[in-house]
Design brief:
Elements: H1 2-26, E1 42-44, E2 47-49, E3 55-56, E4 59-62, E5 76-77, H2 88-96, H3 103-117, H4 120-129, E6 133-139, H5 140-143, E7 144-145, E8 148-149, H6 155-166, E9 170-177, H7 200-217, E10 223-227, H8 242-258, E11 263-267, E12 286-293, H9 300-313, E13 320-326, H10 331-344, E14 347-350, E15 354-356, H11 358-362, H12 364-367, H13 369-374, E16 385-387, E17 392-393, H14 399-407, E18 415-416, H15 418-431
Parallel strand pairs: 4-6, 4-14, 5-17, 6-9, 9-10, 10-11, 11-12, 12-13, 13-14, 15-16
Antiparallel strand pairs: 1-2, 2-3, 7-8, 16-18
Pfam families: Cellulase
GO molecular function: beta-glucosidase activity
Protein name: Cellulase family glycosylhydrolase
Length: 432
């Protein structure tokens, strides 16, 4: 009799859980048509609104590999320097120790790359496609030198924001690499350290950097918001958690002291359940951000529903922004993503605008063998545009050799990928 009762209770609990999950999955966010405008992008309830107070859905792309080159799509390599694995931090050190370069020349080459890889034409192209947003990843190394802001710290970011303004785009400013690295991943610019959380100096430097950014862009309505930390981990190779959110709270309050208006993006890495209960912090005007790369045997729709279920289960009554995502060579999955994002009112920026495919064509296992074997057309489609240029060894090459490679990184030398076509087809459909 006891076991019958226990069995009935368990069955009831399971049924309640199933019903609860079904209710969460079926629940669709409400779409109030308008709110009172503030001049800035703002979060109210579960949606974003533009400066006039109209419902807003950010749709765009990342400018990855621009401020921070990543080794798997980089134009640069570092030969036998240090570990031989390129990162932003290691690449800068390699150039400074290159016997063919002076410190001034190394700086000139970095600026040449920044001017070449993304130009005005690229912002025009994004707008021409019909997108309305660009996420711009950068690191502290782009803005600081020897622990202090460079005199020209914001020169290139200001230019990017000005280009967004000119072509009717929103800019999402994304700190991809914090002092000490928030994840010890190469895309933070430094894969040698995990030394942000608990390091008083690095925590203070990152807070000071965000204070400077917020003060500089206060009042700039082209900036949609601040993405405080890209893909934070609680430990190397361990997803995020309370330690990340407690530090987010410190950054949030630092930003708010300088800028009360801009939207703030809070990332859960990798799933919503790796977050923390938001009511403990009392944040306002925030948007939860997730990155979706479905490298599982489950369908794309199942993956998207999983994120929605966890977001609801955590009680996050905020807008959702998919700051990074890609569906590789599978057009059906691209269209599934587009349709689901629109249905939920989620904002999104795909990864990424342009890549250099040369490295991952040489060593497919380096990036992800799964993608090659499961894509319909065996193409990665990481970028809308794809260069195919041999990397230049910046630890040994001459100034002229590096300059030639960097200058050739312009988009006119890149091929359009299927990802461009998928985006084009989707955006044309939304205009009909």
């Amino acid at each position: 009799m006891v076991w019958v009762v226990i069995g009935c209770v368990l069955a009831a609990l399971i049924l309640a859980a199933v019903v609860s999950c079904a209710a969460l999955l079926c629940r669709r966010p409400r779409f109030p048509a308008r709110i009172e405008g503030s001049g800035f992008v703002q979060a109210r309830g579960e949606h974003l609104y533009d400066g006039a107070g109209d419902l807003l859905q950010l749709k765009g792309v990342n400018f990855g590999n621009w401020f921070i080159q990543e080794p798997w799509m980089s134009l640069a390599s570092v030969g036998s320097f240090d570990t031989g694995r390129y990162t932003q931090r290691r690449g800068r050190a390699a150039m400074l120790q290159n016997p063919n370069l002076s410190a001034a020349q190394a700086e000139e080459l970095e600026q040449l790359y920044l001017r070449s890889y993304i130009r005005e034409e690229d912002f025009r192209q994004v707008a021409r496609l019909g997108m309305n947003a660009v996420r711009i990843p950068f690191s502290y190394m782009n803005l600081e030198e020897d622990g202090a802001l460079r005199e020209d710290a914001f020169e290139r970011l200001d230019w990017a924001v000005a280009m967004c303004r000119k072509y009717g785009l929103y800019a999402v400013l994304d700190l991809h690499g914090a002092h000490g690295s928030q994840n010890r991943d190469h895309h933070s610019g430094d894969d040698a350290r995990f030394d942000l959380y608990g390091n008083a100096e690095n925590e203070a430097k990152t807070e000071a950097l965000w204070r400077a950014i917020a003060a500089h862009y206060r009042g700039e309505r082209t900036v949609a918001g601040y993405d405080l930390l890209n893909e934070p981990r609680r430990k190397p190779h361990r997803y995020g958690g309370r330690v990340n959110f407690d530090y987010y709270d410190r950054l949030y309050r630092a930003v708010r002291e300088e800028d009360p208006d801009h939207l703030i993006f809070i990332e859960c890495f990798s799933f919503p359940c790796n977050g923390a209960r938001l009511r403990r912090y009392g944040w306002e005007n925030v948007c939860m951000e997730y990155h979706i790369y479905n490298l599982t045997p489950f369908s794309q729709k199942t993956c998207l529903r999983f994120y929605k279920l966890l977001h609801e289960w955590m009680g996050f009554r905020t807008p959702v922004y998919i700051g990074e995502w890609n569906a590789y060579g599978r057009e059906k999955d691209w269209q599934t993503n587009f349709a689901y994002f629109d249905k939920m009112g989620w904002s999104f920026t795909s990864w990424t605008y342009k890549t250099n495919a040369w490295f991952y064509k040489q060593d497919k296992q380096y990036l992800n063998f799964y993608v090659y074997t499961h894509s319909e057309n065996r193409k990665l489609n990481w970028g809308l545009f794809e260069l195919d240029m041999p990397t230049v060894d910046i630890s040994t090459a001459t100034y002229e050799e590096i300059a030639k490679t960097y200058a050739a990184s312009v988009t006119e030398n890149a091929a359009r990928t299927d990802a461009y076509t998928f985006w084009e087809k989707y955006l044309e459909g939304t205009r009909k």
